[in-house]
C-alpha cells in the first residue's frame, strides 16, 4: 500500500509539473484544442484535395524519371563512362534521392509541417531541372544531337561536368524530400478515426503508387525516345515543364487541404527514453498499470494520440517507472517519460527489422535503372526502321504495376477477404512477403534472358541477335512485385508509425530503396573485384558479351531467398501498434456514422 501511495503521489506531482513546465526541446508539449482541429477537418481534405496531390505526384514523377530512367545511357554516351562505373553512379544517385527522403520527413514531422516541406522541396526540384537543362544545352551536348550511338559527343569540360552533377543532385534532394511528405500529406486528407475515411486512406496509398507509375509511363516511352535519339536537352526541358505544372497545381489547391501541425523534434523524445532507461538500469520495471502517463484523453506529445503499453522491449519501461528519486526531478524528461513516449521509441525499434528485410528487395528493384538497361542496350531492338530505346522497356514494368494494381483492388482484395474473413484482404506484411517471392522470380527471369542473349551473340558485333522483348517477363515480374512490396510498405510504415513521426514512417519505404541502391553498388564492386582477377573480364565488364551478368542476377535471387526466410521470422514476431481510442472518439464516430 505504501508503494502504491508513492506511485500515486508521484504521478500527481509529475503531471502537475509537466503541465506547468513545457520542455524547450518540444519533447513534451501539451496539446491544443482538439475540437477545433476536428471542426477544421470537416470542411477540408477528402478526395478532392487528395486528387490534387495524386496529380502532383504523377507530374513530379514524370519529371523525375525523365532524368533518371535514361541517366545510365547519358553517363556512358555523353560523359563517356564505362558500364560498371555508370551503373554504380546511377545507383549512388538513386540512393541519394531516397536517402534525402529522411531529411524531408524529419523537417516535416518536426518543424515545417507537410505542406511547407512539400512546397520548398518542389522549388529545389524545379531549380535542379532548370540547371540540368541549361548545363546540357550549353556545356555537354556538343555537337547538337550527339549521344545517340551514331554521333559521338566531345569530351565534356570540367565546368560542364561539375554543373551537371550539381544539377542532378539538386534534383535528387528536391524529389527525395518531396516524396515521403506528399504521401503522408495525402494520407492526412482522410481521418482514420472515421471508418469510411479509414478505408479511403488505405485506398489512397494504392492510387498513390498508381499515380507514380502512370506519371513515369510518359517518361519511359516518349521522353526516352527523344533522349535516345540525341535530344537530351528537349527531354530535360519537358521534365522541367512537368515539374513546374506540378508545383503550380500544388499551390492552387492550398485552401482545400487538411493540415496537421508538426509534433516537434522526435530525436530528443526517443533519446530521452534510452537515457532514462539507462539511468535506471538497476530498477525493476513496474507493472503496466503503474507506469507513468499523463491523465486525460490527450498524450503529452503535441498532436499525437496515446499509445497503449506493449510487452516488447520491456527494459525501456524503466523510463516510465516512477522511483523515489523521480519525485525530486519531476520536470526532467531525461529521467521520467510517459508510456506514450516509451511506446514511440519501441515502435521505431520494432519497425527496424521489417525495414532491414526490405533492403534486398530494393536491390532487385534498382536493377531496372541500371543493369536491365545495359542488358537491353546490347540486344536486338529494331522494329523495322524503328529503334526501340532500351530504357523504354521499363514501360512494361509500369503497365504491369497499373494492371496489377487494378487486379489487386478489384479482384484479390474481395477474394482474399472472403477466404480469410479480413475485409482488407491480405495484411501489409503478407503482401510484402509475396513481393519478395515475385522479386526472386524476376531475377531468375533476368538471368535466363542473359543466358539466351549470350547464346545469340554474333562474333565481332556488340549487339546480340536476341530480341529485346525477351526482357518483358523480368520487367512484368518486377512490376507485379512492386504492387505487393512498395504499396504494402507505404501502408505498413505509415500505419504503424506513431502520430508524431508519420512522415518518418513513409520515408522508410524510400530509405529502403536508397540503401538498396548503395548495396547494389557495393555488390557490383565486390563481384567485379572477385571475378575480374587474373586478367579475366569479370561478370559485368565493359563488353557484356565477354561477361556473365546472368550469374549476378542469380546471386541476387539467392540473397533475396535468404532474406525471405529472415523476413518470415521478423513478420511473425512483429506486434502492431495499439492506439488509445477515447470515449469522445467513439461517440463522434457514431454521430458521423449516422450522419
Order of the strands making up the biggest sheet: 1-2
**Total tally of structural domains:** 3
Q: What is the radius of gyration computed over CA atoms, rounded to a whole number of angstroms?
A: 26 Å
What pattern of helices and strands is seen along the backbone?
HHHHHHHHHHHEEHHHHHH
How many distinct beta strands?
Answer: 2
How large is the count of helical segments? 17
Query: What coarse outline follows from CA principal-axis ratios?
Result: globular
Beta-sheet strand percentage? under 5%
Q: Can you summarize the main beta sheet?
A: 2 strands, antiparallel
Share in helix: 55-70%
CATH uppermost class of the largest domain = Mainly Alpha
Mean pLDDT: 84
Q: What's the name of the CATH homologous superfamily of the largest domain?
A: MFS general substrate transporter like domains
Amino acid at each position: 500500500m505504501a508503494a502504491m501511495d508513492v506511485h500515486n503521489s508521484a504521478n500527481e506531482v509529475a503531471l502537475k509539473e509537466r503541465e506547468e513546465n513545457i520542455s524547450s526541446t518540444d519533447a513534451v508539449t501539451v496539446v491544443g484544442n482538439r475540437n477545433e482541429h476536428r471542426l477544421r477537418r470537416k470542411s477540408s481534405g477528402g478526395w478532392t484535395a487528395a486528387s490534387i496531390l495524386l496529380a502532383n505526384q504523377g507530374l513530379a514523377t514524370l519529371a523525375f524519371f525523365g532524368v533518371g530512367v535514361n541517366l545510365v545511357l547519358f553517363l556512358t554516351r555523353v560523359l563517356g563512362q564505362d558500364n560498371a562505373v555508370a551503373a554504380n553512379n546511377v545507383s549512388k544517385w538513386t540512393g541519394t534521392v531516397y536517402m534525402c527522403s529522411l531529411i524531408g520527413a524529419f523537417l516535416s514531422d518536426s518543424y515545417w509541417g507537410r505542406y511547407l516541406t512539400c512546397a520548398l522541396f518542389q522549388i529545389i526540384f524545379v531549380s535542379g531541372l532548370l540547371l540540368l537543362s541549361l548545363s546540357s544545352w550549353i556545356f555537354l551536348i556538343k555537337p547538337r544531337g550527339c549521344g545517340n550511338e551514331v554521333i559521338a559527343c566531345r569530351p565534356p569540360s570540367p565546368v560542364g561536368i561539375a554543373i551537371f552533377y550539381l544539377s542532378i543532385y539538386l534534383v535528387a534532394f528536391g524529389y527525395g524530400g518531396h516524396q515521403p511528405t506528399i504521401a503522408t500529406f495525402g494520407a492526412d486528407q482522410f481521418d482514420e478515426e472515421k471508418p469510411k475515411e479509414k478505408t479511403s486512406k488505405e485506398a489512397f496509398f494504392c492510387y498513390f503508387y498508381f499515380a507514380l507509375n502512370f506519371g513515369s509511363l510518359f517518361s519511359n516511352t516518349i521522353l526516352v525516345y527523344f533522349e535516345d535519339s540525341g535530344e537530351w536537352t528537349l527531354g530535360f526541358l519537358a521534365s522541367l515543364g512537368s515539374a513546374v505544372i506540378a508545383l503550380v497545381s500544388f499551390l492552387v489547391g492550398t485552401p482545400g487541404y487538411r493540415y496537421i501541425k508538426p509534433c516537434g523534434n522526435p530525436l530528443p523524445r526517443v533519446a530521452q527514453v534510452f537515457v532514462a532507461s539507462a539511468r535506471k538500469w538497476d530498477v525493476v520495471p513496474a507493472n503496466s498499470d503503474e507506469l507513468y502517463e499523463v491523465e486525460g484523453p490527450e498524450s503529452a506529445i503535441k498532436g499525437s494520440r496515446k499509445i497503449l503499453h506493449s510487452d516488447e522491449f520491456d527494459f525501456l519501461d524503466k523510463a516510465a517507472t516512477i522511483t523515489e528519486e523521480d519525485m525530486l526531478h519531476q520536470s526532467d524528461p531525461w529521467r521520467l517519460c510517459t508510456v506514450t513516449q516509451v511506446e514511440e521509441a519501441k515502435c521505431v525499434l520494432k519497425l527496424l527489422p521489417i525495414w532491414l528485410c526490405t533492403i534486398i528487395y530494393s536491390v532487385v528493384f534498382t536493377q531496372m535503372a541500371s543493369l536491365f538497361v545495359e542488358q537491353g542496350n546490347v540486344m536486338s531492338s529494331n522494329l523495322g526502321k524503328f529503334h526501340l530505346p532500351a530504357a523504354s522497356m521499363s514501360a512494361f514494368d509500369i503497365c504491369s504495376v497499373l494492371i496489377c494494381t487494378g487486379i489487386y483492388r478489384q479482384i484479390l482484395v474481395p477474394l482474399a477477404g472472403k477466404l480469410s474473413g479480413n475485409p482488407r484482404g491480405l495484411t501489409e506484411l503478407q503482401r510484402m512477403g509475396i513481393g519478395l517471392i515475385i522479386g526472386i522470380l524476376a531475377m531468375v527471369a533476368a538471368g535466363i534472358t542473359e543466358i539466351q542473349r549470350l547464346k545469340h551473340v554474333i562474333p565481332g558485333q556488340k549487339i546480340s541477335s536476341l530480341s529485346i522483348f525477351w526482357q518483358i517477363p523480368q520487367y512484368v515480374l518486377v512490376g507485379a512485385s512492386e504492387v505487393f512490396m512498395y504499396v504494402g510498405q507505404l501502408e505498413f510504415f505509415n500505419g504503424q508509425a506513431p502520430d508524431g513521426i508519420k512522415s518518418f514512417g513513409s520515408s522508410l519505404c524510400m530509405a529502403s530503396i536508397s540503401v538498396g541502391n548503395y548495396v547494389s553498388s557495393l555488390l557490383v564492386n565486390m563481384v567485379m573485384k572477385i571475378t575480374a582477377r587474373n586478367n579475366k573480364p569479370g561478370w559485368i565488364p565493359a563488353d557484356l558479351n565477354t561477361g556473365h551478368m546472368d550469374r549476378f542476377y542469380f546471386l541476387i535471387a539467392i540473397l533475396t531467398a535468404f532474406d525471405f526466410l529472415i523476413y518470415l521470422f521478423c513478420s511473425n514476431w512483429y506486434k502492431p501498434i495499439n492506439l488509445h481510442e477515447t470515449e469522445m472518439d467513439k461517440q463522434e464516430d457514431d454521430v458521423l456514422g449516422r450522419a
